Amino acid sequence: MSTKQRIAIVCSKYNEKIVESLLKGAKKRLSEENLSISEKDIYLVPGAWEIGVMTKKLCTSKKYKAIITLGCLIKGDTAHFEYIAEPLVHALMNLSVKYSIPIGMGVLTCYTPKQAYERSLDDKGNKGYEAASAVIEIIKLLR
User: Fold this and answer.
1) The pLDDT value given to residue 123
2) Measured between alpha carbons, how far is 139 from 16 in angstroms, rounded to an integer?
3) How many other C-beta atoms lie within 10 A of the C-beta of residue 41?
4) DSSP letters along the chain, please?
5) Fewer Cβ atoms within 10 Å of its own Cβ: the N or the C terminal residue of the chain?
6) Residue 1: what pLDDT?
7) Cα-flanking dihedrals φ and ψ of residue 35, to 5°?
8) 51-61 and 80-99 helices, crossing angle to 10°
9) Is the distance from CB of 69 to CB of 7 less than 8 angstroms?
10) Active site includes 80?
11) Contact (CB, 8 A) for 107 and 87
């Protein structure tokens, strides 16, 4: 894949098992389109909060045709969930529009660990798979 055709994936390391399953789903969907992803194009960040800044860095690098973001936020007993989820979603949308780069939103925002698990299974309900699907579709539409 040429430099202009590369796709990056930004993954949160928090809730690692869930995010690993989302990554597996995203890679599966990309492979169905004969798009391989190099390990050097997968960027690991500490948590969901850091996804935004890494995504912006990748948008401004002009190396990537699209970016897929993967993470998992699970609501707890404090407002932490709200402080991260809503600003992250807005930041990713704004970056996508500002830089005209498709950004797949594969960051789960769940109320329970069970919901997160169910959205990361190895089937087509996998939200990493769905985020990659959305990116592929938008790349085609923007051509």
Assistant:
1) 73
2) 28
3) 18
4) --GGG-EEEEEESTTHHHHHHHHHHHHHHHHHTT----GGGEEEESSGGGHHHHHHHHHHHT--SEEEEEEEEE--SSTHHHHHHHHHHHHHHHHHHHHT--EEEEEEEESSHHHHHHTTSSSTT-HHHHHHHHHHHHHHHH-
5) C
6) 38
7) -110, 110
8) 10
9) no
10) yes
11) no
Nearest to 123 by CA among 21, 31, 33: 21
Exactly one of 80, 90, 124, 140 is catalytic; name it: 80
Asked if pLDDT for residue 77 goes beyond 90, the answer is no
Strand-by-strand arrangement of the 103-110 sheet: 42-45, 7-12, 66-74, 103-110
Q: Sign of the C-alpha dihedral, residues 39, 109, 126, 105?
A: negative
| 25 Cβ neighbours under 8 A, 6+ residues apart | 120, 122, 126, 127, 128, 129, 130, 132
pLDDT 10s digits, 14-40: 999 999 999 999 999 999 999 888 999
Place of tokens 């969901």: 48
Q: What are phi and psi of 79, to 5 degrees?
A: -80, 0
Q: What tens digit of pLDDT does each residue of 78-98 get?
A: 888 889 999 999 999 999 999
Q: The whole model's pTM is what? A: 0.93
